[in-house]
Amino acid sequence: MTTQVLKVEKKINAEPARLFRAWLKVEDFSRWFLSGELIGIESVQIDPRPGGRFQINMLLDGKIFPHEGEYIAIEEPTKLVFTWRSHATGGRDTLVTVTFTALPAVTDTSSAETSNKTQTLVTLTHERLANDIEIKMHTHGWESILEGLDQWHSRKE
């Protein structure tokens, strides 16, 4: 079977380490993952170490949809690799890699004081998806999730 790969990217005005840690701390993760969507978070469990597992129970229309996986690599603050399994992958393990690349600081002139803001390019690659439907569903989901991460960070500044 030929598998497909999706890739989404987002520039966020934040340090890579801050965004990286937001993926591994339950308190922060629960605040930004899926924010603003019709789907919510019922519960999150994270064991942030290579070989550690996670479970994210998403809530939609009163039904719980478990998403789970295992951390393959945790290279703070630049890279996370984990398996991803859910109803939307047909119960198969797929592979997600998230990288955090520091970009040159941008000058912010929107306020009275000019400042330089660190930017991070967050790149998420999701491999082993089976078909165009899985690509479409996950592209929308991951784009929303990265937008939630950006909004969460902006609120915390």
UniProtKB/TrEMBL annotation:
<protein>
    <submittedName>
        <fullName>Activator of HSP90 ATPase</fullName>
    </submittedName>
</protein>
<dbReference type="InterPro" id="IPR013538">
    <property type="entry name" value="ASHA1/2-like_C"/>
</dbReference>
<comment type="similarity">
    <text>Belongs to the AHA1 family.</text>
</comment>
<dbReference type="Pfam" id="PF08327">
    <property type="entry name" value="AHSA1"/>
</dbReference>
<dbReference type="InterPro" id="IPR023393">
    <property type="entry name" value="START-like_dom_sf"/>
</dbReference>
<feature type="domain" description="Activator of Hsp90 ATPase homologue 1/2-like C-terminal">
    <location>
        <begin position="13"/>
        <end position="151"/>
    </location>
</feature>
